[in-house]
Structures are given as C-alpha cells and as structure tokens.
Amino acid sequence: MIIDAHAHLLPKDYPADAPECFPHMESIEESTSRLLVFGKTRFAAKDVFFEAERRIAAQDASGVDAEVVSPMPPLLRYDLPAADGLALARHVNDFAAELSSYSPERIIGLGMVPMQDPDAATGELAAIKERGLAGVEIASNILGSSIGDEKFLPFFREAEALGLSVFVHAMPTPMDRLPLSAMGTYVVGIEGMFAAASMILGGTAVACPDLRISFSHAAGGLAMMLPRANYFWGGSWNEEPKNLERAVAPDDGPSPLEIARRFYYDAMVFDARTIRYLVDLLGADRLLVGSDFPAMLREEPAAKTLRSMDLPDQEWQDISWRNALRWLGREAQPSRGALASLNA
User: Within a 10 A sphere around the Cβ of 45, how many other Cβ atoms?
Assistant: First the structure.
C-alpha cells in the first residue's frame, strides 16, 4: 500500500464577489484545465487538481492507495490583508473538505490558515478540525519570519492540542545571494532547512513534544547539518550525548538530532543515496512518500526510487504507508479499508 503524503489541490473557482486580491481561475480554450491567476502567478492547472473522479483515476493509474492533499503553495499568500487571507483560507478549506468527502479513505485533505495573523490562524484551527480535515499546511516562512519564532508558538500548541497534523511546505523566497533561477531548486532546500532548524532552535519542538509535523523535500539541507549541530551540542550523529562537557555550546534538554527524529519528512529527494542517508540518520520511521502531484508528475510507478532500493520489508512498509498514518495520528492498519477512518 502507498500513501502519497505530499500532493496538492486547487479550487476550481472562487466567489464572484471576492476581493480583487483573491485568485481567480480562467477557462482555457479547448481544455479541461483552468488558468490560476493570482498576482504575478499564472499557472495552468490540470483538472486533476479539482475534480475528485480524476484524482482517484490518477491514483489508480500510478498505484497509489491514498493521497494527503494540501493547497497548492502559491495560495499561501501571507502578504494579503489579514481579513482577506482568512476569507481565502476558508474558501480553500471548504473546497478541500468537499474534495475529500468524495472518497475520504483516498483523498485526505489539509487546510490553510492566515499565518500573517497568528491569532486568527490559531483560532481557525478548530474550524479546520470541524470540517473533517486532517491538518493544516503552512509555508516555511511567514513574511520573512521563521516558523519557530515565539509569536507562532500558540498556533503550534493549538494544533498539538487538537491533534491536527502540520505540513510545512518549503516556499521559495527571493534573495540577493542567488539568482531567480534558483528559487525552485536551491532556495527550496535552504527554506526547508531554515524552517526545521527554527523549530529546533526556537524551542517550539521542545514545547510541543506531541506535535505531528512533516517537512517537504526532507527539509532540504537539514540532515547534512544535523551531525555538526549534534557534535557542538555534545554528541555525535549516531550516539546520543552522555556526560560530556559541552564546552562549545552548552545546552540542556534533547539534542538537535533527538528533536529532528520527532519530525516527519517526505522522501522526494530524487536519489537513492540520499534516501539511504536519511534512513541511517533519521530513521525509516520518519520518512514519507511524496510527489508534489499534480504540480509535478509522479515517478512511474509511484515511489520508483524507493522501490529500487530493495529496502527491508519493515522499512518499506513504514515509508510507503505506516508513517503517513502515524503522522496523521491514525492507527496503522494494512488495508485500504482502514483508511476510511482517516477523516472520521
């Protein structure tokens, strides 16, 4: 069984009386796709983004048993006025709930919130749960602020209390040190690392030990930096610190590596060697299948790189579906029928 824990949705349309700053979808001549127009964004969205029947057919064609679908990242526009951001989030969340209601055991919806207003974002989490959505997607930074900033701690505490899963999607942010052509490649890796590291260093992960959070694209370069972070904390990559003198960076509480091993990460890194390192460092019980579908085409068959590694059966079962259910806070059961309880 395979659960794709990183897939995306787009509403087919938006209210006719929506504020001018809202996105809108335009018809494309002689096509079932629609054009998303949102600020400078122009994106031709295939109908699988918004038609439930097409999603199920696409899953069947790729050998996928279920998807966790989150809003397409361009919708996470935290520069909108807070009230408009909340209205947009509610519209997208209503659509996510409608899409997942078509087949709750196979389309598992995540919502979104206006993180530019931390209080409003926190208050909206209860409504997300009431809609039957499994959790919420947020971007890797909010108007330049790291998600580990203390101002977002109440948001994460509430998500933890409500049992909602959090998916952090790396969001390219223009910077002077890299050209625009690097936004979708190198900057995604940097952003993922910043987001996960801020949760460790800012104290949020320690303050919310039961928070179920996952990071897109294996949190970018985080895994490469963790051994160094752990060394300076007072340990090594494969051994938790004992009674060592922490002369460089004295600290109390869990080590960076221990905290990082509480997170989940999708394994969409396109390389078996990298996945092997992630398994060795973080554990096979931390990785998820991801595809970015339909913004990107899935590997054929789904999880082809993972399949090519001849993983031990326990590791394959964990990564291909069990970890997704754990991240979603559901009992891991080995049948598609068991997925029917996901949105209950």
Answer: 21
**Amino acid identity at 179:** P
Q: Would you list the domain boundaries of the chain?
A: 3-330
CB 75 within 8 A of CB 309: no
Q: Is pLDDT at 250 greater than 50 in this prediction?
A: no
Residue 278 to residue 227: CA distance in whole angstroms: 12
Residue 56 above 90 pLDDT? yes
Rounded CA-CA distance 182/189 in Å is: 10
The two tokens of residue 101 are 């209601």
Segment 31-58 mean pLDDT:
95
Residues 219, 268: contact at Cβ < 8 Å? no
Q: 104 pLDDT band (50/70/90 cuts)?
A: very high
**How far is residue 157's CA from residue 78's CA, in Å, rounded to a whole number?**
21
Of 119, 112, 287, 140, the C-alpha closest to 199 is 140
Q: How confident is the model at residue 238 (pLDDT cuts 50, 70, 90)?
A: low
232, 248 contact by CB (below 8 A)? yes
DSSP letters along 13-80, please? ---TT--TTS-EEEE-TT-S-EEEEETTEEEEE-GGGT-HHHHHHHHHHHT-SEEEEEE-GGG--TTS
Return d(Cα 200, Cα 183) in angstroms, integer: 24
Q: Which residues, listed in sequence order, are joined to residue 282 by a DSSP beta bridge?
A: none
**Which of the following CATH numbers is that of domain 3-330: 1.25.40.10, 3.20.20.140, 3.60.9.10, 3.40.50.300?**
3.20.20.140
pLDDT at 246: 43
* Cβ count within 10 A of residue 80: 18
pLDDT tens, 169-223? 998 777 777 776 766 777 778 899 999 999 999 999 999 999 999 999 999 999 9
Nearest-angstrom CA–CA distance, 90 and 278: 36
